């Protein structure tokens, strides 16, 4: 996973609350048992003129050429609610998004972001609304997400500290594979299990 | 120090604290299904990793399997067969127990786990599925994660988790007759909103919760994910222990006694402090039905669609959008709204007691002409039990389809659906745009409301249909 430090990129506003993972990537677009090949299905219910078609719906924000190459998404509360499918983050990441700014995230979705190097940045709703309005007024504007300083900087010198838990921030900055990291603790884990198996033998099915 | 149930389970499973502040938590059970679990197993295999404790991991086929009688690996979802076969192959390679299509223990993951005694009080259980919180009904700490975290849990028997906050929702009072755990879950969402439980493990407590049977508790906890919660939990009681005794994966022999002794400790201490406390009166709850595209947009069944500019959950914009999608005008009465289809199924409401209550309404009645009505039992075991009681005949004679178990049209996988603009009364948990198929309009309610509405051809109050 690529470490994330700071990113300046075009930001796209999609200011709706409760965007669920099925809207991010409909289940019908998850065609293979793979983490790849999902970008074309991103927001497909909104992005294309009709179900099954690949004709862009001109009204959808990402189809405005000004947002080509957008890597930051500015969106509404409870983003990523619904199904736990990690395909939602795989699709966003493959499309190019590396940071999402919202007033709140669904907890499973937020974990999936961190697991895939995408920054889930929390800002108060009123600020997100202002930010989205500014972006919509000037399509193609950029924002800077500085994970080191934990700040988001806008074009008019505005700068806001965003919320992210320290564990996630460290993981994103390091870009390390969490499974490899935890496997380094395998002796601790095994030792813990050996003791636990004695006190809670009932929790261990006979294999 | 006084502790909540959650604290007790968490502390027992905490291996160590990580530098970033998260805890490394021992995971007792990993559950997988073919939609999101197959990809986790496949990724694990591709990276040359092994499952650390295969005897504590289980996989099942539920999400995209066909639910038509005589099913095979072929399914109505294009490429669905690939998911089924890839999951089967990955389960074989990694040596984990798979409940395959034709296994008598097959069913929706959150339905079979309690049935088989896989989930136990005081254990930690994860599954790459958002409704894993259902299983907190048995006093476990069970929560949903993504595929990468599932892979982490498979490889290491642990997860790194930030300790969630604790919330107690105390629900006292008696549910009126004809009002169920589903109505209670919807009423809570209507009152506290989809963000009401955000960041918290929610302990449901109080006399109304204690009075629920186990299946009702599973229904209540099921919708904690709609509440935005990390998970839900209910203190296990003697009813839970009696339910679990003798189940295939439950402890037996000397272990059983030790288990029950440990489980009896699993209640929140008298003076345990919660980060947040909410209270709710069950007595005033009516059968609930959703009118919008978020499960917080609900009203009592005799209520009307609210004006989006009136105070309510979510933004005015989102409520206006919901009205347009659902093709409803403010002031429209929910009862009496014509439906095209009725669906009884899903991990929320497809257990034996759900089917019994729906059948009691359907007995001797017919589904209204033009209404497509489907019943999908939550597990093969539920289906067989229902058939032994003759419930399938009630459903079939009324005009319901009687299916093999699975998630079916709780969600649209790309195969079968109800069709654009169809209005569906559904015992499921999500009414999102296109959840049950492109353009489908879902109204969520209890199984008895679904049954009564199927018969009436319009959304109908189940209390009037109960004999
Ligand atoms: S029944 Fe529906 S909500 Fe439950 S696990 Fe299956 S798809 Fe998810």
Give a written overview of the molecule.
The complex is a heterodimer of chains A (207) and B (467). Chain A has helices at 21-24, 44-47, 87-95, 107-115, 125-137, 166-174, 178-183, 186-199; strands spanning 6-14, 72-75, 99-102, 119-122, 142-146, 151-153, 159-161. Chain A has 207 residues and is α/β, with parallel strands linked by helices. Chain A has one domain (6-174): Alpha-Beta Barrel (Aconitase, domain 4). Chain B has 16 helices and 19 strands. Chain B has a five-stranded parallel beta sheet, covered by helices on one side. In chain B, strands 17-16-15-18-19 form a five-stranded parallel beta sheet, covered by helices on one side. Chain B has two domains: 1-285, Aconitase, domain 3 (2-Layer Sandwich), CATH 3.30.499.10; 288-464, Aconitase, domain 3, CATH 3.30.499.10. Chain B is an alpha/beta fold and 467 residues long. Chains A and B meet through helix 4, helix 6, helix 7 and helix 8 of A and helix 2, helix 3, helix 5, helix 10 and helix 11 of B. The site of iron/sulfur cluster has 10 residues of chain B, from loops.
- Tell me the strand order in the biggest sheet of chain B: 5-4-3-6-7
pLDDT averaged over residues of chain B: 97
The most extensive interface, with participating residues per chain, is: A-B, 63 and 81 residues
CATH superfamily of the largest domain in chain B: Aconitase, domain 3
- Which CATH architecture of chain A would you pick? Alpha-Beta Barrel
CATH architecture classification name of the largest domain in chain B: 2-Layer Sandwich
How many distinct helices of chain A? Answer: 8
CATH fold field value of chain A: Aconitase, domain 4
Count of strand segments of chain B: 19
Topology pattern of chain A, helix = H, strand = E: EHHEHEHEHEEEHHH
Strand order of the largest sheet of chain A: 4-3-2-1-5-6-7
User: Which CATH class of the largest domain in chain B is shown?
Assistant: Alpha Beta
Structural class of chain B: alpha/beta
What best-fitting shape of chain A do the alpha-carbon axes yield?
A: globular
Helix content of chain B: 25-40%
CATH topology of the largest domain in chain B: Aconitase, domain 3
Terminus-to-terminus distance of chain A: 35 Å
**Percent range for helical residues of chain A?**
25-40%
What compounds sit in this structure? Answer: iron/sulfur cluster
What share of the residues of chain A does DSSP label as strand, in percent? 15-25%
* Biggest sheet descriptor of chain B: 5 strands, parallel
